[in-house]
Amino acid sequence: MTTGQASKRHAELATEVRSHDEAYYVHARPTISDQDYDRLYRELLDLEKQFPELVTPDSPTQRVGGTPISEFKPVQHLTPMLSLDNTYSQAEVREFVQRVQRIIPGETLEWIVEPKVDGVAMNLRFERGEFVLGATRGDGTTGDDITVNLRTIRNLPMRLKGEAPPLMEVRGEVYMTRAGFEQLNKQRVARGEEAFANARNSAAGSLKQLDSRIVAKRPLALKVYGLGKVEGAKKNFETHSEVLSWLKAVGFPTPEKTWQCCSEDELLAAIDELDKIRRDFAYETDGAVIKLNSLAQRERAGFTAKAPRWAMAYKYAAEQAETKLKAITIQVGRTGTLTPVAELEPVFLAGSTIARATLHNEDEIRRKDIRVGDTVTIEKAGEVIPAVVGVVITKRTGNEVAFEFPRRCPECNGEIQRVAAMGGDIAAAWRCMNPDCPAQVQGRLVHWCSRGSMDIEGGGDVLTSQLVKNNLVKDVADLYNLTLEQLLTIERMGKKSAQNFLEGIAASKSRELWRLIHGLGILHVGVGGAKALARAFHTLDEIANASVEQLTETNDIGEVIAQSIHDWFRNARNQNLIERLRAAGLNFTSSTAIARAPTNSAVAGKTFVLTGTLPTLKREEAAARIEAAGGKVSGSVSKKTDFVVAGEEAGSKLTKAQDLGVAILDEPALLKLLGS
Ligand code: IVH
User: Fold this and answer.
1) How far is it, in rounded angstroms, from Cα 620 to Cα 608?
2) What b/e string do you get for 563-583 counting C-beta neighbours within 10 Å, with b at 16 or more?
3) 403 touches 332 (CB < 8 A)
4) Would you say the CB of residue 445 lies under 6 angstroms from ligand 1?
5) 286-334, pLDDT tens digit by residue?
6) Is the CB of 226 under 6 A from ligand 1?
7) 225 near 171, Cβ under 8 Å?
């Protein structure tokens, strides 16, 4: 294939994949089978591999994220991003309408009501229909350039359909889907990490990641609701409804429902109706936004210093209840984290009776000055677990008792330490440092037996707590020495269940390697990480002996996780556990390992960029040989590039390499490197 043909085919494929992406992610109406889609996508990927110069930032393949960056650059919005005045009161909605009517006397006012998406505000810049820059709101004037992260959001169009103005800013909100948020939190808890408090925090935390490959895996999505600066548009909009329909037509995800209202009563009815249906949306909403529909009237209404006079947010009261805090208990998880739990006078809230709520950590209790005996407000607003939001100070009697956070583990009296958590987006927690702590031992047993690990039926809370209490099991390796006689000493244990449990344990010996890895409960290693390790390494011993660098080279394993794995296998106790599992006859070999490229050459792990025509090697041959030697081939030159291989008529990539001081090789030099 000539470069010209490749470029033509690339454009065709990109357009086709883009349109299927839009159908799927924006309209939730797939237009092609998964299989056919995969075929197109693969062809695009293969083509880009052969012709790396065809990879542009708006290619559908770039949604998976790229090289991590070191910081977000500040960027100025072309028009400021204002906030909205808000209210919880219907009377204030009426006052608002009357106020606007006084500014625009004698004219009929038409309003649009939209869901207020509870996410993170975004400014998206498009030039000639192409997404070029995306930024957070920041202080309203200057935000952070998070373009690389936004490119991973599947329903954000990289290129618009139809005619687009030379320059335009689109305003919207990035959110995490409710379902995605709950799943993400479950995974985090399974990995021994702290759960995110709510979907908005986790969307904000995700967008702050410097590694866009992590962002690509977070269930983020966009909703747009307006325009910022627009320059050189042919078409002039008269109303907000027209703006929304146009945004939808060119490929943006817009609110699924809006209401047009002509009176205060209609507005309040719309707000009510939205409240009834908003729980069915994929995202959290915290209110309704009321906006004047006519853009000319908006101009006449004008702005205050921070907000438009033509719009207002009506906020729905969070679902809260008051109840008495009877006690604070401490839960010790399998990783030793001490979580304070509020034991409450049972109270009915948003469809269920709540008797316990999380207090997150010691700092949180202190910050909110929560005392045992207090009347507290609890909330269930997008949170998976209800949380205590604060104390009802007016109900204090003086008999409340400040809570003394334990200085030792309440389960084993062992030493506890404050441990800074992953990425800094998690509050520091106390952790019990005693690996023999019965609560941890039991937690590890439950985790080992769980569906996502060794899948041993019967190994739930009830039985494992008995095993620990009766001193029958001190760690997961002890399971493999259990006898029927021992199990029958447990209260209310029947012979049949005991036999079933033993059979389950025996069957677990030949489970796939990733299940065993996951079952070990290494901090930060979830099912995905365990599977990735089992694909990249042949045996458990290879993983145990791998350096942090080698572990980091594994897909899906970042530095923090790699370090955690490395540390785990350097711990004498864990080494002993592994030997006992080996002796018990457990499977340590991966059936899913993919043959890995040799990693001992000067090429391994290095990034190459090919440019120009090489004297003998075709570009794809050169790329294949680099990859076979464990190197990576990329389409563009950056600080992260190790070598640029330049042939005849090398262009801008060579110049850029020279500017950045990247090593430049000719073909003979490359061959020498490959041969070494
Ligand atoms: S319009 C100039 N519409 O709420 C007014 N904002 O509390 C621009 N928000 O900063 C905002 N959904 O981040 C508008 N349908 C919607 C919205 C919405 C969520 C956010 C937005 C804004 C904040 C104000």
Assistant:
1) 13
2) ebbbebbeeeebeebbebbee
3) no
4) no
5) 899 999 999 999 999 999 888 999 999 999 887 788 999 999 999 999 9
6) yes
7) yes
